[in-house]
Amino acid sequence: MIFADRVLGVKPSATFKYDAAAKKPGVINLTIGRPDFDTPQVIKEAAKKALDEGRVHYTPSKGIPELRKAIAEKLEGENNITNLDRDKILVSGGGKQIIYCIIMALAGKGDVVAIPNPAWVSYEAQIKLANAEVEWLTLKPEEGFIPGEDFMNELEETNAKLLILNSPGNPTGAVIPERTIKKIMDVCVERDIFVISDEVYEKIIYEGKHYSPASEYENVITVNAFSKTYSMTGWRLGYCACADRAIIDRIDIVHQQSLSCCTSFAQYGALAAFSDEAKLAAEQMCEELKSRRDYVMKRIGEMDVVCAKPGGAFYVFPYFNGADDLELADELLEKGVGVVPGSAFGSQGRGCVRISYGSANIDLLSQAFDRIIR
Ligand SMILES: Cc1ncc(COP(=O)(O)O)c(C=O)c1O
Predict the structure, then answer these.
(1) pTM more than 0.70
(2) Does 118 contact ligand 1 (Cβ within 6 A)?
């Protein structure tokens, strides 16, 4: 078989690869990008009820109207994004599928898409699948991977059409302060750059306050998902929102022609994510994750690494000065701890490893750090 050019330059997901390698007896798997909590019961019951009521058919491609209405209200109430209605919302198969549809709709041959370096592995792959070009904007370990002078200078020079922002961020856990996001947005407005704001970790935040740029800027598509907040990674539900309905309608064409619509009963389940019961469960999960983060930072303090305290998500991204991160990840796997090498996330991740505490309790983390430190 001669494969299409678009797929030849794209590697399989490094996080899936290292996760598979860490699934060995005796290995503590800290590669996993998901929380180890169950989906709140109220959401599961709502999905079961929808199944029992025979809600098993295609839904409108953008998503069931009730869910899109609830998302528009959430974005207005919690994120101060006031220029939306349900037609400006699109529900698709997880944050990943939404970002893929956006990139396919907005970027193509000759277009440049700027992403932070390091960044979540799928941005680069998806941009390449769209035949567009990636431009990396430098983040630095010593700045806690928050956009600094280098990032801003590179942004001011870029001829990118799109920029992807991600706060709280994967793989670093960094929460970008509101003032920094505004500085970035001002440059983007001036240079006519459209922004994809990936906010899938918005509710997993320990310090600082989440800021959605779409609350003040029009040139933004906001991306979110039910996956991380409600531990629904297997449900495959995410969404995007934009003040410009014509943009959503174009993205919907990619979504319609590839997926038609999301799983019907999963969408009815997701409606219950806006209940008080589900919100409480999400807050409790975040509290537990914060205890894990604090424990992890205490143990990281015992090592000679550069690692700013991450304000959100469930990752730490320590920098081991002078280390080869691929060798380090292999060596740690041999010693019984699975991590993802930092260079999988971009060249600025060299010398780092991504440690996820989303799926390991403090007891397991304690054993894992004993091995890492040894
Ligand atoms: C930054 C970021 N964006 C988007 C996603 C996609 O999430 P999902 O497709 O599971 O909703 C992930 C998953 O790891 C992520 O880390």
Answers:
(1) yes
(2) no
Cα torsion angle, 90, 51, 278, 38, sign: negative
Rounded to the nearest angstrom, the distance between the alpha carbon of 200 and the centre of ligand 1 is 6
Q: Please write the tens of the pLDDT for every residue from 40-81.
A: 999 999 999 999 999 999 999 999 999 999 999 999 999 999
Which domains, ranges and CATH numbers included, belong to the chain? Answer: 5-39+277-373 (3.90.1150.10), 43-274 (3.40.640.10)
Q: Give the model confidence (pLDDT) of 137-184 as tens digits.
A: 999 999 999 999 999 999 999 999 999 999 999 999 999 999 999 999
Tell me the helix, strand and coil percentages in the chain, rounded to 5: 45, 15, 40
Ligand 1 contact via 31 beta carbon (within 6 Å): no
Q: Which two tokens stand for residue 174?
A: 């960094």
- CA-nearest residue for atom 14, ligand 1, is 33
Residue type present at position 159: N
Contact 193, 225 (CB under 8 A): no
Ligand 1 atom at shortest distance from the alpha carbon of 119: 1
Q: Is 170 in the pocket of ligand 1 (CB under 6 A)?
A: yes
